[in-house]
Amino acid sequence: MPRAAIYARFSTDLQNEKSVDDQVALCRAYCAREGLTPVVRFQDKARSGASIFGRDGLIDLMAQAKTKSFDVVVVEALDRLSRDMEDLAGIHKRLSFAGVEIRAVHDGKADTVMVGLRGLVGQLFREDGAKKVRRGMMGVVRSGRHAGGRAYGYRPRPGVKGELEVIESEAAVVRRIFADYANGRPPREIAGSLNREGVEPPRGDKWNASTINGNAARGNGIIFNELYAGRIVWNKVRMVKDPETGRRVSRANDRSERTTMEADHLRIVDQETWERAQSLKAAKAQLASTSKRRPPHLLSGLLRCASCGSGMSVHDRSESGRVRIRCSTVRESGTCDNTSRIRLERIERAVLDGMRAKLNDPELIKAYVKAYNDERQRLAGDAIRNRAKTEARLEEAQRELDRAIQNLIKGRLSDDEADAILPKLRAERDTKREELAACESVPKVIALHPAALAQYAATVDGLHQTLADHAHAADDRGDLVRDFRQLVHSVIVGQPSKNGEIPVKVNGRLAALIGGDLFPQNVGVNVVAEEGLEPPTRGL
Predict the structure, then answer these.
(1) Which PANTHER family does UniProt cross-reference here (predicted)?
(2) At a CB cut-off of 8 Å and minimum separation 6, what does 44 contact?
(3) DSSP character for 200?
(4) What is the pLDDT of residues 156-179, one digit of tens each?
(5) β-strand 3-9 against 72-75: which pairing, if any?
(6) Which of the two ends of the chain, N or C, has the fewest CB atoms closer than 10 A to its terminal CB?
């Protein structure tokens, strides 16, 4: 008697688990009538038929079919195997190649025509069901109820489906965020204040600027959530399934596709504050990315602690009003031993003095460029000599990647396994491609031109001359900071010595000189900031 494998599946965890047992009983009765011997059973509980990904039972069935463990697969109906036309046709093709029949209790033996028709009907049924669910949710919104997930500041009303009520403690946080933002406070500072005060965030363990900023196209985030202005908005995004991975991906819908209903009883933020916040958001959206957040100081974002490598930021001001910096790790976690507070002005002056004194030397720059050219020639020579080996490794890397993708598509590789394997294989392939491209390209020799050196020296001198009043020169500060950042990669600040001297290392860029990519090695300039240590301010 032919050996039979029974497969059963139900779609969601809202369905009765006995559905699997009922399907198996029906299939066993069919086997008895048709003279088949059930030898193995496969099942997938609460798994959609829209994709083969994540269905361990189906994957095991396909794997055992190759070992001739059974002759027939019996299902209640073909849509138990899949409700996707492409997937059902692929399953039928692979099982047929393995010499395994598919039989459905209600339809008999599956052939190409039946698979095509049932695949089409199953997919249409699934898509039609999704449309009906969306229609029902639209009706919920039109009735003034909420059809989305939990929103910060609200909770479901007990015993009333779809209706929300305001949580006053969270609503107070929302009002505070809107008031601070409307008054010009950046989201990053707002999030930092909430974290320091221990205010519980909507999700996760801390507030982030993105939690407040959100996304205008998707209408999410605190600032863009119209529910706070007393409007229920539904259908902001739609979920589509990636056919390559089986994962659901969200995509923003156009505003014309959204459904909006007034719900003034859910308003948390007054209309004036809401409009001020939205106007501010709209104004910032029109700015160039470089204008949205101008560095407040010449070295903002460039300072690094020599002890731990973390950034250094403004800590406070001295009694004389001068800005002092400190290691960020000391402030955030206290795990760095560089606890000194240092005058920013001293570091700025030391950096520019050192750049003017040492980087103006053409011989220094030429030495770095020569080293760069020599190294490029050496690496290119090695690559050309190893061209054949590189081509072979590239072909092998591509084959391994193709095999992994095929295994994923056929269900032999799980999503978690694919997430771990595919990025490594792609990275290896891309590395080999770059190595092969290096074999084919002629090394570019960089030459220094007198005009470039003169412009570089003028830039350094100009930066030094405007240092004294750069913080107060609103018209010049943007150009100053932009020019400076073309020359400096980072500034490493060490701990003050006993005599008050602070070791500072400037890591510079040579892109401004050579007009190309960043130099592979930064130009290191060691300088000393004298009298930079500020005694603690009384009362701090």
Answers:
(1) DNA RECOMBINASE-RELATED, DNA-INVERTASE FROM LAMBDOID PROPHAGE
(2) 8, 9, 55, 56, 57, 58
(3) P
(4) 888 777 788 889 999 999 999 999
(5) parallel
(6) C
- Rounded (10°) CA dihedral 405, 99, 10, 33: 180
Do residues 340 and 330 touch, judged by C-beta distance below 8 A?
no
Q: Which helix (H) or strand (E) holds 251?
A: strand 248-252
Terminus-to-terminus CA distance in the chain, angstroms? 89
CB 248 within 8 A of CB 306: no
Domain boundaries, the chain: 3-135, 154-292, 303-362+450-529, 377-440
- Count CB atoms within 10 A of the CB of residue 70: 23
Q: What pLDDT is recorded for position 481?
A: 60
Class of domain 3-135: alpha beta
Query: CA–CA separation, 225 vs 205, rounded Å?
Result: 21
Cα separation of 29 and 125, whole Å?
A: 27
Question: Which residues, listed in sequence order, are joined to residue 250 by a DSSP beta bridge?
Answer: 239
Query: How distant is the alpha carbon of residue 88 from its chain centre?
Result: 33
Average the pLDDT over each of 77-91, 342-356, 377-391, 415-429 and give the range with the smallest value. Answer: 377-391
- Bridge-based pairing of strands 342-343 and 323-327 is antiparallel
Residues 6 or more apart in contact with residue 282 via CB below 8 angstroms: none
* Mean pLDDT of the 51-57 span: 82
Q: Residues for the chain: how many in total?
A: 540
Residues 115/75, Cβ–Cβ less than 8 Å? no
Comparing CA positions, the residue from 281, 286, 293 lying closest to residue 222 is 281
pLDDT surpassing 50 at residue 516? no
Candidates 3.30.160, 3.30.70, 3.90.1750, 3.30.460; correct CATH number of 154-292? Answer: 3.90.1750
**pLDDT, mean of residues 187-202:** 87
What pLDDT score does 479 carry?
A: 52
How much of the chain is in helix, strand and coil states, percent to nearest 5?
50, 15, 35
pLDDT on residue 334: 67
Q: What is the pLDDT of residue 394?
A: 82
Distance between CA atoms of residues 81 and 388, nearest Å: 47
Please provide residue 135's backbone torsions phi and psi, each rounded to the nearest 5 degrees: -65, -40
Asked if 57 and 42 count as a contact pair (C-beta separation under 8 A), the reply is yes
- Taking only Cα atoms into account, the Rg of the chain, rounded to an integer number of angstroms, comes to 33
